[in-house]
Amino acid sequence: MTDYGHHLEFGTFLTPTSRDPEHVVGLAERTEAAGLDLATFQDHPYNPELLDTWTLLGWVASRTERLRVAGNVLNLPLRHPTVLARAAAGLDLLSRGRVELGLGAGGFREAGQGMGGARRTAGESVDALSEAIDLIRAVWDVDSGGEVRSSGPHYPVPGTPRGPRPHHDIGIWLGAYKPRMLGLVGAKADGWLPSLGYLDLADLPEGNRIIDESAEAAGRDPRQVRRLLNLTGTSFSSVSRGFLQGPPEQWVEQLLPLVLEQGVATFVLGGDDPRAIDLFGREVAPALREAVEGERAVKGTLTGPARPVAALAARRPGIDYDGVPAALRDLAVEPGDGGYTGVRHGYMQRGRPGLVLRPTDPEQVAEALAYAREQRVPLNVRSGGHGISGASTNDGGIVIDLGRMNGIRLLDPDTGRVRLGTGARWGDVARTLGDRGWAISSGDHGGVGVGGIATTGGIGYMSRAHGLTIDRLTAVELVTADGRLLRVDQDHDPELFWGTRGAGANLGVVTAVEIEAAPVGNVVLGRFVYDASATASFLRAWGEIADAAPREVTAFLTLGAGRGGQGPVAQAMVVYAGEDTDAAVAALEPFLKAGPVLDQRAQVAPYAALLVPHQGPHEGHGTPVSRSGLIGETTPEIAEIVAAMITSGDSYFTQFRQVGGAVDDMAPEATAYAHRSARFSVAALGARAGRLDRHWSALEPRLQGMYLSFDTRTGPEVLAQAFPEPTLSRLRALKAVHDPDQVFDQNFPIPPA
């Protein structure tokens, strides 16, 4: 008797009839409404009475929000494994992790051969399925590098690129009954999916034995194989008529031993009766879960996912992996997991965290924080996007990744007030709001996470017209170090609200913000490329032109050392925040006089088009040395120092971002970002700290503070630059109240008073 400790899941097994396509889609929607986890569909491509199952999976995924979908089971001889792997990965990405892959060796051979399927014996079909599983996993394995190649007799592949990587680790479930297929389940699959009617319940122990022995022989933990069961030939009635033919409480009583003694953890209801779906989801599933949890608690059953031996060996000291809260366990990622590469790195910094937790709501964030505080490792928080400072990952510690808390919701269409999950990315925010005629000035890259900018500052392409991102915040939702869930604004804990706008990473995990967007239609973008060989004089001229521009204009200038014997080259992105093209031309024309122009172009575009499209998972391009400061005018001394830094090659990337205008309208004491009189933010990136700092130390006495998101330094020597008094004292007082134990000490930490 075996209970493998898997959490229980429930689903439906629906008939994909082509006579009434909307009926089966409606049953899938009813499956989700009943609280069930999964909708599955039989796959018989040779039967014109049935819809194509793969097409149906995509349609159902688009019509539902959380429901997972799978074939039950897909006819492998008619679906080439490399194509199937890419199709599954694509649908998994589009549905955000809601696809599983049920496979069969292929029944009804003559019908399949009539459609061009391979002619194979039963034994050859098992071999082909084994070969296919390897190919599918190889396509998904983007970390191994090189092409997927196979010289197998059934699916030879001369060479095809890997990828894409699915959104989550897609489970491969096999429909199996005979010993060779059961052995394949244990050796390679993630789940066993038989059906009542083809399998006698008395055969479950023998099937489990074969699977377990095969798993152990392959070096796997048998708990890595989920046991599923299609429940066919069942019905609900007020009185008992036999096995699974009676009232819901009888179903619970009869299914309970299948969990506790035979290890079945997923029950899939066969049939198309809407009432049965409702009863299964609303009465049987919750009651059976409760009964199983009670029995497991008494017996001390080991629960949670099983890890491969290699993954267990990759675990890092100081972390109690078995103690991960149940609500976070399914989405947690460890070294050795298939999805680890997609969550380990930051945009710049390469990381090797020991555990990545991915909460989906504030309550789970609180659980994650409580758990992390008990571990003996660093804790970093990632908002979901990229950053320069490298504070979103670590080596050997825990990362709380908010990427799944990415909601974007317009609360008030009259004022543009919007609620943003801090795991959202600004490119998605810009597109969503742009469709309604609103925008929020938010950096220059669509891949940046909302949380980073919304807690630090937010110097964007429309800052001089609409202020910093934090200037438009009306409320902040956060989880404090002690697990409290707070919503703060000007009327509710205004001092904490003040601190979160500029130093939020020190005061809690910000999970959502409310912010007032500005009415913005199209904007005018001017792009200028300059020969900046006369770097110092060019910088002075460009700075004077930018400073004299109307506040509708915000200009960013990027300079790099020349190549191939050429002098430095500069590129400017100059944005006029409005659609008046005549006024925009008049405002942009002076920038042509800053220096020799190598290229120029202007266009009217939606604000969202200005943001660099965001990528998928970050790959850790290499952590640069970064220095950041704020200046007033570009004085001759500042221009000479920056010019020397650029021409030396010690900075391979230097950027001026214009502020002032609406940024200066806000009083310095209104937010924890106090640098309101500055006119430019300057950031320099280099490979070596010593060489870059030789130049930066000459610049530092002329700075008016720093913008901390662009600086890789931390510590008391730069703390006062980021937070001048009395801002720093106020923040230290807040830190003493809300984080006296310095739980949040990895992102420009502030010591408590």
From TrEMBL:
Q: Which UniProt keywords apply?
A: FAD, Flavoprotein, Oxidoreductase
Looking at the record's lineage, which domain of life comes first?
Answer: Bacteria
The cross-references to InterPro entries, in alphabetical order and at most eight, read:
FAD-bd_PCMH, FAD-bd_PCMH-like_sf, FAD-bd_PCMH_sub1, FAD-bd_PCMH_sub2, FAD-linked_Oxidoreductase, Luciferase-like_dom, Luciferase-like_sf, Oxid_FAD_bind_N
Q: Does the keyword Flavoprotein apply?
A: yes
What positions does the domain FAD-binding PCMH-type occupy? 349-520
Which cofactors does the annotated protein need, by name? Answer: FAD
Instruction: Tell me the SUPFAM superfamilies matching this sequence.
Output: Bacterial luciferase-like, FAD-binding/transporter-associated domain-like
Is Oxidoreductase there in the keyword field? yes
Family that this chain belongs to: Belongs to the oxygen-dependent FAD-linked oxidoreductase family.
Q: What is this protein called?
A: LLM class flavin-dependent oxidoreductase
